[in-house]
Amino acid sequence: MSSDDPRTVAETYFRAWKERDFTTLRGILADDATFRGPLGAADDGEACVKGLEGMAQILDDIVVQHVFVDGPDVLTWFDLHATVAPPAPTANWQHIENGRITRIRVTFDPRALTSD
Fold this sequence. Notes:
This is Nuclear transport factor 2 family protein. The chain is an alpha+beta fold.
């Protein structure tokens, strides 16, 4: 698989986020990458990295359960382990073009992370 392969790009994203390697993360995000999720939104690659840096503050582990690939789209089903809440089953849908992530959509139940 080449570095342009969507599955490889998605694996790099999760590995870099878990290792807090934000330089690698930025390198696989398109400049105009967008993010939408229950805790926020971002409209360019820099803002996406800033959001991932914020989540990394409470990130304990990412346990991937399954990866679905459909052409340029990759859906990763994983358990998001945070230091402040029980693991959250999470779906992350990425659209990848020319080896770069252009769109990220995430869904999970954020109540344990946002409750007082």
